[in-house]
Design a protein that fits this description.
- The protein is of the alpha+beta class and about 525 residues long.
- Among the domains are: about 220 residues, Vaccinia Virus protein VP39 (Rossmann fold), CATH 3.40.50; about 140 residues, no CATH class.
- It is built from twelve helices and 17 strands.
- It has a seven-stranded mixed beta sheet, with helices on both faces.
- The N and C termini lie far apart (about 125 Å).
- The mean pLDDT is about 80.
- Keywords: Methyltransferase, Transferase.
- It holds the Pfam family Methyltransf_24.
- It comes from Lysobacter soli.
- GO terms for molecular function: methyltransferase activity.
- This is Class I SAM-dependent methyltransferase.
Length: about 525
């Protein structure tokens, strides 16, 4: 990794920050692959795509980049307005348009504009259901080159109908795959059979020691995004757009962005706003939830009303008593007006819920056309650094609230009585301890006598054991002597066998007969010599 300092570039950041933790690896991927064609499916505010473009420009890579998105959002990310696309384009076009294109299209409609086998790096980050992500992969698979690598975001998210993890399990049986687990997970799939050697070496290292590789990139990511708060800790993050969103539901439904309305504050200073949310035809919600923004701050609600066909008529508006709010996901503050609800949030998800039951009882069956919401933006923390400070402050307050409370004042007289009773019980316990001591001493003497008896028996057993060992040694010595005698007898037997064999050979050769004849002649000669004397 020392040969790739590109991982330490500083990025341009925009909300949301879910992908930001993988930006250092995005830098490295461009360095390892030097792709000829990069395509991203699902771009949102552009954190991942702008990081790819930044690395391409920094390295001088010969890469043509294309981001494909309808820039409307989806149920797994968020639904948003035109400002996300316009803000991204305003930053992107002056810097990267010579080699990069923002293609506003649905994925399936855009695939025909690319030649087969032309894409070296594909990033899939669209709708995250199993069916959707599998369709994206299979639709774009023919467009991948023999050098291709595909990355999938959110592979470490289960629930909410996310299915990327399931597809990665299937793909890992066909291709080499490595997964990062932080920032919702990022799966790296080696699809091509001729990937660059630098990337192949990375995969070898990552698969050999996955925990070490994950720790390395998690450490770099922590210098950009605080893993505890998911807020930027470095400069370069852009101030957030202030949006107000209203969710609506019936009694049996849950809140969902598909059943929500979104309005943006005009650019410039945050101010008091009187929003008019147009309700879809036939919508008659039982409950609404107002999210004044997704930023920390201090907010006030001063109007909540249903609007009908003739808002100028005396009964044209059905007001909701703001003071009868349901759950409040913030800190309730003292209101500045009689019919105000004022609250503060140290996190990025302030909201308040209201029931519309009383309002519908007043207006009857008349269909409402809009919802009027008056919001006072007293303070909104747009700067990411201030957002981080607010989060830490809120965490400290929560810990303080959970800390143990001080005990009530001590009743000294009652304490004295308790101590006296404790003293009496202590004396009883001490006497009991003494009695136990005497009993223990008696048992100790008995145990000592038993120990002496056992010790004597052990000494006898040891002496017998020594005698047995001595006898064993003598037997071993005698056995050695017998073995030597056996060897000597064996040698004599061999010698006799050899002599016997020799005599047998000589007999067969007639030597013994000639020897006997010779011995007989010699005997007669000696007899004759004796007679002659």
């Amino acid at each position: 990794m020392d040969r790739h300092p590109v991982v330490f570039l500083r990025p341009h950041l925009s909300h949301p920050y879910a992908w930001v933790g993988h930006i250092p690896f995005a830098y490295l991927l461009i360095d390892l692959l030097r792709p000829r064609q990069l395509v991203e499916l699902g771009t949102d505010s552009g954190n991942s795509y702008l990081a790819f473009c930044q690395a391409v420009e920094h390295l001088g890579a010969p890469t043509r980049c294309t981001a494909i998105d309808c820039w409307q959002g989806d149920e797994h990310a968020r639904f948003y307005g035109e400002h996300v696309y316009s803000t991204l384009r305003a930053y992107h076009d002056p810097r990267y348009s010579r080699f990069s294109t923002l293609l506003r299209s649905y994925f399936a409609d855009a695939v025909g504009t690319f030649e087969d086998g032309s894409i070296d790096l594909l990033h899939i980050d669209g709708l995250h259901t199993y069916e959707a992500v599998r369709e994206d992969f299979e639709t774009w698979l023919p467009k991948l080159s023999d050098r291709a690598v595909v990355i999938f975001h959110d592979c470490n998210v289960q629930g909410r109908d996310f299915g990327v993890w399931k597809l990665i399990e299937e793909l890992s049986a066909r291709y080499r795959t490595f997964e990062f687990r932080h920032s919702n997970g990022l799966a790296v799939v080696e699809v091509g059979s001729q990937v660059p050697e630098a990337f192949r070496a990375f995969m070898d290292t990552a698969l050999a020691d996955p925990d070490a590789m994950r720790r390395y990139f998690e450490g770099i990511a922590a210098t950009i995004l605080d893993p505890a708060t998911n807020l930027p800790v470095a400069s370069g993050a852009q101030p957030r757009q202030v949006d107000c969103r209203v969710y609506y539901r019936t009694g049996e439904e849950g809140y969902d962005e598909r059943r929500s309305l979104l309005l943006h504050l005009p650019e410039g200073s945050v101010r008091t706003m009187d929003f008019r949310f147009v309700l879809p035809d036939g919508v008659r919600p039982d409950f609404i939830r107002i999210d004044p923004t997704d930023l920390p701050g201090v907010f006030g609600l001063f109007r909540l009303a249903l609007e009908f066909e003739d808002p100028q008529a005396p009964d044209g508006v059905g007001f909701v008593d703001i003071r009868k709010s349901g759950h409040l996901n913030a800190e309730n503050l003292h209101p500045v007006g009689e019919r105000w609800l004022r609250f503060a949030s140290f996190h990025d998800d302030p909201w308040v819920e209201f029931s519309l039951a009383e309002a519908w009882q007043v207006v009857g069956d008349r269909p409402a056309t809009a919802l009027r919401v008056g919001v006072d933006y007293e303070t909104v923390l747009l700067d990411p650094t201030l957002q981080h400070i607010a989060y830490e402050h809120g965490l400290a307050l929560a810990q303080r609230a959970m800390a143990p409370q001080l005990p009530p004042p001590v009743d000294e007289e009652r304490l004295f009585d308790n101590l006296s009773q404790l003293g009496e019980r202590t004396q009883v316990v001490e006497q009991g301890v003494q009695d136990l001591g005497s009993t223990a001493s008696h048992h100790a003497a008995e145990l000592e006598a038993m120990r002496a008896l056992v010790s004597g028996q052990l000494d006898l057993i040891r002496s017998q054991g020594d005698a047995v060992l001595e006898n064993k040694s003598m037997l071993a010595h005698q056995q050695g002597m017998l073995e030597q005698q056996r060897l000597m007898l064996e040698q004599q037997r061999i010698l006799l066998d050899q002599q016997h064999n020799m005599l047998t050979v000589l007999t067969r050769a007639g030597f013994i007969r000639r020897l006997k004849r010779l011995v007989g002649i010699e005997s007669r000669t000696k007899e004759d010599q004796g007679r002659s004397r």
